[in-house]
Design a protein that fits this description.
Number of strands of chain B: 34
Shape of chain B: elongated
CATH architecture of the largest domain in chain B: 3-Layer(bba) Sandwich
Helix content of chain C: 40-55%
Helix content of chain B: 25-40%
Largest sheet of chain B: 5 strands, parallel
Number of domains of chain C: 3
CATH topology of the largest domain in chain C: Rossmann fold
Chains: A alpha/beta (145), B alpha/beta (658), C alpha/beta (387)
CATH architecture of the largest domain in chain C: 3-Layer(aba) Sandwich
Radius of gyration of chain B: 32 Å
Oligomer: heterotrimer
Distance between the termini of chain B: 30 Å
CATH topology of the largest domain in chain B: FAD/NAD(P)-binding domain
Structural class of chain C: alpha/beta
CATH class of the largest domain in chain B: Alpha Beta
């Protein structure tokens, strides 16, 4: 049997909600796919679209952006800015011919350990089905420098 | 330090078997030794223990480490612990970084190989970031020992007295010419039926006479600048045209004034003079001249008031004055408004004259009110029947989704007062009776004993279109008595609408001025709904009373006292630490486009006019980094989470080697 | 032992799935029952229907499920945002699928299925009403297609309204064309009366026909057509810009393409808001502006008007069902109109016109006039004076 593809998923998330939600999943000893790696910022508003593109370019097969629920932002409304940037990001992905589902935006609060687990697993499965990203051949095919 | 080569030390924690049971800690330490700039790596059973911390301190000195990484639990748990340990060895605490291999790894995975691989990745990521860590300075600022309280209702008065009694200076600013707020308009209070004025006015007088309280009535906040411990507030003191130092508050001018205007305090039910007090027990008692109603300001004639003023207190050239105050903490207690009763148009307010609001009833029932306390219809007759309609605009997705929390209880109070003063039958149309406070359910029971009729069904509409003789000349309420499953038409002489409490009309402006968030209902947002109920997103700005959400008097007073205690605790501390991981501008890169100003939730970004660049007020900045992500010129650095550091983490995790 | 009712959650879920998904939001305050105009003339517990649906309990027989005229008054006032009319429609659909809907409605649905209209009218003669007026057929150069309501095409009284409309459109130089008679009932009453499957057939057929002709904009004389085309056809893939005659006439008068110059001689006029024009589509001002533009016309208002207007009782399939005279809302309203001194009742919906004409007969009000606003404007414009 061929070894199944293990996608690499980067999680860019805020300190106060999603990072804490992932902590809660830990303290509650919930289990999820070991494919995800978290990179912490203080607020999801800090997440620059270039971080996402860099992660994909470097070799991540999918990126999850996650922060506090709208209206729950620790910094009043940083997540609104994250939300507004997201469509731009999808437009960029489309230009590179990258599937929408590889980059996902989710609101996961500090109390939603179960939600974090669910999203981490879903994301892993979705990207597993999409297969390796293979940035180089895509950008070459699309004639993008 | 910047020029020194990074010398990184990595410490891998077993956390007993919590980590070591799944993750091969030896492999992690071994892998760490091969990572760039790592000069030392070891593992230990419990890094957070005293010997564990000592390991860090010793290694810093022995191996001349200038960066430290502990791979253990969540930084939300022990980052402060290890920062301290790092600092004890003379290293800047911000040169410490944590890798979370417990909550994010050993506890959530079962496959030992995959978990160990992931732990190594997480350490790699931390090492990559550590290389670019920079020392940051913790800063402390002194706290100005004075508190500004905005709003002189019962919440603001309570907070002012508590703080002033503790020996701290207070500036109490009130928009109206008298303190007292909504509570001053109420007649009786539930469930005890104390006279509202009787319990409030002593507090008002106390506040006015307190040596530590400076009362600024007829005043509004123009601008708030600064940050926790050091706010500068500009206050507009509106012209009153009467010199308060000279006026004896004798009131002769009010008697002599021939001009009238509608009284807002009496909810438009009666008139007051152009020179007037808000209400008889107003504090301060000095009247003001309403420029819009006074004929002198229209045609330069009259001054009837002045002719009789013995102390010569009138100052016709009086102008608004702006005063500046420096305070360490601010309590916002700006109160509530009521929904326009015409908005739920089906109840006929404004068209059917005997449909009134609850607050109008308070005035009608009050001895100093428009009917001298007589409960009568607009025709001057005692009503034979009165209907009180609950939830008008409240619990209604067409208007306000929330429960206003006081209406059930004041409806009971009204029913009692009507029963006491008239022979009227009283109907309450309700959805649910919410009598949750101390003595509230007992009060409900008392009203049942008094024979008040309760109909479980929300009133659908009020009409004067009679279908039967019995309905002629009456107001008819259509509602389903849901417990019976019968739709009723109930004819009455007077309808009282329990209309919803809402945020003040200028809540959005006030929120912006003080840097407070608002919840979806429009009320001001507390920092945490349970554990930080009076704090806000802006340090040093606190909330009290109904500006945060509908509440009754006991809860309002309790919150006023709570806000006083947190403000006092800040003042007593004397100094505050301000966020070190703030944003900073790279002057050469900034194009001065000001996009960053729009995204900053704290108005922490100013503009240097001379250099035409953005300027960050480090004292206001909370370090969210949104500006850094937004800046089109990459001219803003989010310290401790800068582009270089985050990209290094990404490269470490995903870049293909070789 | 007695038979205890117990909740049947599957039934509740079935109702939710067929379009009544908001039913669980109800907190049983009774605003719907108290608002429902039926309660002016008889008892009708709307709340109880929702309560039964929440628990999946039976008992609709006693609840007069078929009474609801879908006037939307309760939905407008519901504090929880329950789409009550959708819940009732959903229950009706389930009962219709089970084959136990009322006989009269069965006959109406049968006619719609067979003839494309509820009036048992010959489908080949759909355009007969307009023949004498020689309106041009719709071509790709037409801006609008005129979509005549079945009631305006087959019901003798309402045919007059349709004709007045065509005359006005021609006089104003509106670039419109007639459809070729292949159009079928829009399906509004069918759907509201539980005939979801038949509605799907009708809408598919109409959308295919309209798209084949390249129709983008439509003029309708019935608020029910307006609502169905504007709000229900998009879900089926049919997207058209739809304008009701009253709105269009108001624009034509404002732009002086129509000039109502003849003095009104019908005494005082009270305007009745059709539920589907007012509450459902927020067209309150246009018909009033029209009436006010007629010289000498004095406009009166019902005590409950605009958003609070009381229904005529003709929607949701009620037009075809029998109601005792003393329980007719149109009769109640007509009495109110007479009492306030009105001699004409104006409205803007063929169902309302029918209901009020019936009420007029029932009350023996020979000298009282029931008119569509279109007719009143046609009377007032010189060029289209009725022959």
């Amino acid at each position: 049997m061929a070894e199944q593809f293990e996608p690499k998923i980067a999680v860019l998330c805020c300190n106060w909600c999603t990072y804490a939600g992932a902590d809660l999943a830990g303290t509650s000893r919930m289990k999820y796919a070991p494919n995800v790696r978290l990179i912490r910022t203080m607020c999801s508003g800090r997440i620059d679209p270039s971080f996402v593109m860099t992660a994909l370019k470097d070799g991540a097969d999918g990126v999850l952006i996650a922060g506090c629920h709208p209206a729950d932002c620790h910094y009043i409304n940083g997540n609104h800015k994250t939300m507004r940037r997201f469509p731009v990001l999808h437009t960029m992905l489309a230009q590179f011919g990258i599937e929408r589902d590889r980059v996902r935006l989710e609101w996961i609060s500090a109390s939603e350990g179960d939600r974090f687990v669910e999203v981490a697993n879903e994301m892993t499965e979705t990207v597993r089905k999409l297969g390796p990203l293979d940035w180089k051949s895509r950008t070459a095919a699309g004639n993008v420098a | 330090m910047k020029n020194d080569d990074p010398r990184i030390g990595v410490f891998v924690c077993h956390c007993g078997t919590n980590i070591a049971g799944i993750v091969n800690v030896d492999s992690v330490a071994a892998a760490a030794r091969t990572m760039p700039f790592v000069v030392h790596a070891e593992e230990y059973k419990f890094m957070c223990s005293d010997p564990g911390q000592a390991l860090v301190r010793d290694a810093i000195l022995k191996h001349r480490l200038n960066r430290v990484i502990v791979a253990a639990c969540s930084p939300r748990m022990h980052e402060p612990t290890f920062r301290k340990a790092t600092a004890l060895a003379g290293l800047n605490p911000y040169l410490f970084e944590m890798a979370n291999i417990r909550e994010h790894c050993s506890w959530v995975h079962t496959d030992k190989v995959a978990a160990t691989e992931k732990a190594i990745d997480l350490v790699k990521s931390a090492v990559a970031k550590a290389r670019y860590l920079e020392p940051l300075e913790s800063r402390y600022v002194n706290v100005e020992p004075k508190v500004l309280i905005v709003g002189g209702g019962v919440a603001g008065i309570q907070a002012a007295l508590d703080i002033a009694n503790g020996g701290t200076k207070v500036v109490l600013v009130e928009r109206q010419q008298s303190i007292g707020g909504r509570m001053a308009q109420l007649d009786k209070t539930f469930p005890t039926l104390d006279c509202s004025a009787c319990i409030l006015t002593p507090k008002m007088v106390q506040a006015a006479q307190h040596p530590n309280i400076e009362l600024m009535t007829y005043s509004e906040i123009e601008e708030v600048k600064g940050y926790v411990g050091n706010f500068t507030v500009r206050i507009r003191r509106k012209a009153t045209f009467i010199d308060p130092k000279v006026c004896t508050a004798c009131g002769v001018c009010i008697d002599k004034c021939p001009w009238k205007a509608t009284s807002s305090f009496e909810e438009g039910l009666s008139k007051r003079k152009a020179v007037y007090r808000l209400f008889p027990q107003a504090v301060p008692g000095i009247p003001v001249v309403d420029k819009d109603a006074c004929k002198y300001f229209e045609n330069g004639k009259c001054k009837a008031c002045e002719k009789f003023c013995e102390p010569h207190a009138f100052r016709w050239d009086d102008q608004d004055k702006i005063v500046e105050e420096k305070v360490g903490a601010i309590i916002v207690a700006t109160g509530y408004d009521l929904i326009d009763p015409k908005l739920p148009s089906q109840y006929g307010y404004g068209k059917l004259k005997n449909v009134i609001t609850g607050i109008e009833f308070e005035r009608i029932n009050n001895a100093t009110g428009p009917t001298a306390g007589k409960i009568v219809t607009k025709e001057g007759k005692e009503p034979e029947s009165v209907a009180i309609l609950h939830c008008i605009g409240s619990r209604d997705r067409n208007h306000c989704e929330y429960c206003s929390r006081v209406c059930c209880m004041y409806a009971l109070k009204f029913a009692h007062l009507i029963k006491e003063k008239t022979k009227a039958t009283v109907y309450n149309f309700y959805i649910d009776m919410r009598c949750f406070g101390k003595g509230y359910e007992e009060f409900y029971h008392r009203l049942l004993e008094e024979g008040v009729k309760f109909i479980r069904g929300k009133a659908a509409y009020v009409t004067d279109q009679a279908l039967t003789d019995a309905e002629q000349g009456k107001l008819i309420i259509s509602a389903e008595a849901t417990t019976l499953g019968k739709t009723l038409r109930v004819p009455v002489d007077m309808v009282i609408l329990a209309n919803a409490m809402t945020p003040q009309k200028d809540a959005a402006d006030v929120a912006r001025k003080f840097g407070i968030g608002r919840s979806p209902d429009g009320f001001f947002l507390e920092k945490h709904p349970k554990l930080e109920p009076v704090s806000t997103a802006t340090d040093g700005v606190y909330l009290a009373g109904t500006c945060q959400g509908p509440k009754d008097i006991p809860d309002t007073v309790a919150q006023g006292a709570a806000a006083a205690s947190v403000a006092m605790s800040l003042i007593q501390r004397g100094t505050v630490e301000v966020e070190a991981a703030t944003a900073g501008v790279i002057d050469d890169l900034c194009s001065g486009c000001k996009i960053c100003q729009d995204v900053c939730p704290y108005s922490a970004i100013g503009y240097e006019v001379d250099k035409r660049i953005a300027e960050i007020n480090a004292s206001l900045c909370k370090g969210c980094g949104t500006c850094a992500a937004t800046c089109p010129s990459s001219a803003i650095v989010a310290k401790h989470f800068n582009d270089q550091q985050i990209l290094a983490q990404i490269h470490a995790l995903y870049a293909q080697e070789g | 032992m007695r038979d205890f009712p117990s909740p049947l959650i599957e039934v509740s879920e079935m109702i939710a799935d067929s379009g009544g998904s908001s039913l669980d939001l109800c907190y049983q305050c009774g605003t719907c029952s108290g608002t429902c105009p039926w309660n002016l003339v008889r008892d009708f517990r709307v709340r109880n229907i929702i309560s039964l649906a929440q628990l999946g309990l039976e008992g609709y027989e006693g609840e007069d499920l078929w009474l609801c005229a879908t006037c939307n008054a309760c939905v407008d006032r519901c504090p929880r945002g329950v789409e009550i009319v959708d819940v009732i429609r959903s229950v009706r659909t389930i009962i219709t699928q089970a084959g136990t809907s009322p006989k009269t409605l069965g006959a109406v649905l049968g006619s719609v299925k067979a003839n494309g209209n509820p009036w048992s009218g010959d489908s080949n003669a759909r355009l007969a009403w307009a023949e004498a007026l020689q309106a041009r057929p719709f071509t790709e150069r037409s801006e609008y297609a005129f979509f005549a309501c079945c009631t305006q095409a087959y019901d003798a009284r309402n045919v007059k309204v349709g004709r007045a409309a065509l005359k006005l459109l021609k006089a104003a130089g509106v670039n419109f064309g007639m459809l070729d008679g292949a159009e079928k009932c829009c399906g509004d009453a069918v759907r509201k009366a539980g005939g979801q499957e038949l509605f799907d057939e009708l809408s598919d057929s109409n959308i295919e026909m309209l798209d084949a002709k390249g129709v983008k904009k439509m003029i309708v004389g019935s608020p029910h057509c307006l609502n169905t085309f504007a709000k229900e056809y998009p879900d089926k893939g049919g997207r058209y810009e739809v304008v009701h005659m009253a709105s269009l006439l108001a624009e034509l008068i404002k732009s002086r393409k129509l000039r109502p110059t003849r003095t009104f001689d019908g005494g005082k006029v009270v305007y009745h808001d059709p539920c589907y024009l007012g509450r459902q589509n927020q067209v309150y001002d246009a018909p009033r502006e029209l009436l006010k533009a007629v010289p000498g016309l004095e406009l009166l208002e019902f005590a409950r008007n605009r958003q609070d207007s009381v229904c005529c009782g003709g929607g949701g399939g009620r037009l075809w069902m029998e109601t005792p005279i003393e329980e007719r809302l149109a009769v109640l309203k007509l009495k109110e109109a007479v009492k306030m001194g009105a001699t004409t009742l104006a409205t803007a919906c063929p169902y309302c016109v029918s209901m009020f004409e019936d009420a007029k007969t029932a009350l023996d009000l020979d000298s009282f006039r029931v008119a569509d606003v279109t007719e009143i404007i046609a009377d007032a414009v010189e060029e289209v004076r009725p022959s």
